């Protein structure tokens, strides 16, 4: 087995098992239903996780079945919760996830914010009380295809999620506080930047631990501030480093101020979220913008690649290429992760339906 996990790409684990996609989606759905979720919510979440794996974003893929099921069991998430939308003004929305899983809430927030932006020009939505919100890029891409630019950022629960050291420090004080920006692009589709403000997303560490592999260089320090590649060192008092040093650290701090100082303390869920949506048609017609975007993006793609790089890509392109060119009938999961999912399902009394 190779022993490295890379941020933004598939876990490099050679010991994989090909699982029919419909089988794992069905199993994950039944595990969530057995945990107390409504069937439609369970299926939506399972499909979202499978799509993340198809896109190559395994940190937000089916490895999360383990996390979500444990959180349902331990009471950290309310499996029966459904997001509720409150319209405070035609272009100002508040989504309350009620302490439930965050994927349906975030999908609702971006969909409704984009709808309001198309009517009003600009809209803002907050999301509170949400558990893990999945792959943000999926929601931003949908809004961009409707002609809207969206900016999503989350933060505000550092007391619970002390994961990332501030620039110059060695103690974990901040969450990974993600940002996602989506905008209509050229002829190949939207441009979607979906990042954690940390060197790697927290999900990569959990996925690497579950798969039994090491982390990339320069991502994590141990409790003494020394570089390490071992997931266990992170869980034993270590910290993730901020992406780009002061850049990621500053963005994380801004998101923390938005999430707590502006939106209020996190009472349920992981972190608070702010979503801004802008109708791009307020500035230029869709065709004119698309042609201009294509000219810019073509110049970037045509840049001669650096040594060891196949080609220059724009944000969101790798995921779309992976989705279009991959096997949609099967998912190749790291064998340890698949085995843990099976073991958890058996513990829930679901093994008789898995053959």
Strand neighbour order, sheet with most strands: 2-3-4-11-5-6-7
Described by its quaternary structure, the protein is single chain
How many helices does DSSP assign?
A: 11
Overall body shape: globular
Secondary structure category: alpha+beta
Number of domains: 2
CATH architecture assignment name of the largest domain:
2-Layer Sandwich
Largest sheet, in brief, is: 7 strands, mixed
Cα distance spanning the termini = 27 Å
What is the residue-averaged pLDDT?
93
Q: Are there runs of 5+ residues with pLDDT below 50, and where? A: 1-9
In percent, how much strand structure appears in the residues?
Answer: 15-25%
InterPro entries: Mal/L-sulf/L-lact_DH-like_ah (IPR043144), Mal/L-sulf/L-lact_DH-like_NADP (IPR043143), Mal/L-sulfo/L-lacto_DH-like_sf (IPR036111), Malate/L-lactate_DH-like (IPR003767)
Organism: Roseovarius litorisediminis
Keywords: Oxidoreductase
EC number: 1.1.1.-
Describe this structure in words.
With 355 residues, the chain is of the alpha+beta class. The protein folds into two domains: 17-80 and 331-354, Malate/L-lactate/L-sulpholactate dehydrogenase, four-helix barrel (Hypothetical Oxidoreductase Yiak, Chain: A, domain 1), CATH 1.10.1530; 81-198 and 242-315, Ribosomal Protein S8, Chain: A, domain 1 (2-Layer Sandwich). It contains eleven helices and twelve strands. Helix 1 packs parallel to helix 3. The longest helix is centred in the first third of the chain and has 19 residues, at 102-120. The protein is globular, with a radius of gyration of 20 Å. The protein starts with 15 loop residues before the first strand and ends in an 8-residue tail after the last helix. The relative contact order is 0.17. Residues 1-9 have low confidence and may be disordered.
């Amino acid at each position: 087995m190779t022993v490295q996990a890379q941020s933004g790409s598939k876990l490099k684990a050679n010991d994989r098992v090909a699982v029919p996609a419909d089988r794992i989606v069905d199993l994950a759905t039944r595990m969530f239903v057995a945990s107390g979720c409504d069937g439609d919510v369970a299926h939506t979440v399972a499909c979202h996780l499978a799509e993340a794996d198809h896109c190559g974003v395994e940190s937000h893929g089916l490895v999360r079945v383990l996390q979500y099921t444990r959180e349902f069991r331990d009471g950290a998430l309310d499996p029966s919760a459904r997001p509720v939308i409150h319209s405070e003004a035609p272009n100002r929305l508040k989504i309350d996830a009620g302490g439930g899983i965050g994927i349906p809430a975030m999908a609702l927030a971006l969909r409704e914010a984009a709808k309001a932006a198309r009517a009003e020009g600009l809209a803002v939505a907050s999301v509170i009380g949400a558990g893990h919100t999945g792959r943000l890029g999926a929601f931003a891409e949908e809004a961009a295809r409707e002609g809207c630019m969206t900016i999503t950022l989350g933060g505000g629960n550092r007391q619970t999620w002390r994961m990332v050291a501030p620039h110059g420090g060695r103690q974990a004080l901040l969450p990974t506080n993600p940002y996602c920006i989506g905008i209509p692009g050229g002829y190949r589709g939207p441009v979607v930047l979906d990042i954690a403000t940390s060197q790697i997303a927290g999900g990569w560490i959990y996925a690497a631990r579950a798969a039994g592999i090491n982390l990339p260089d320069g991502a994590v320090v141990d409790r003494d501030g020394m570089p390490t590649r071992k997931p266990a060192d992170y869980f034993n008092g270590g910290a993730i480093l901020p992406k780009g040093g002061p850049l990621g650290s500053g963005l994380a701090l801004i998101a923390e101020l938005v999430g707590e100082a502006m939106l209020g303390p996190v009472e349920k869920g992981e972190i608070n979220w702010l979503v801004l949506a802008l109708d791009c048609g307020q500035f230029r017609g869709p065709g004119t913008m698309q042609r201009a975007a294509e000219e810019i993006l073509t110049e970037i793609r045509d840049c001669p690649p650096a040594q060891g790089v196949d080609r220059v890509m724009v944000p969101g392109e790798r995921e779309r290429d992976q989705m279009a060119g991959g096997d949609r009938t099967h998912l190749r999961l790291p064998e340890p992760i698949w085995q843990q999912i099976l073991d958890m399902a058996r513990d829930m009394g679901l093994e008789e339906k898995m053959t």
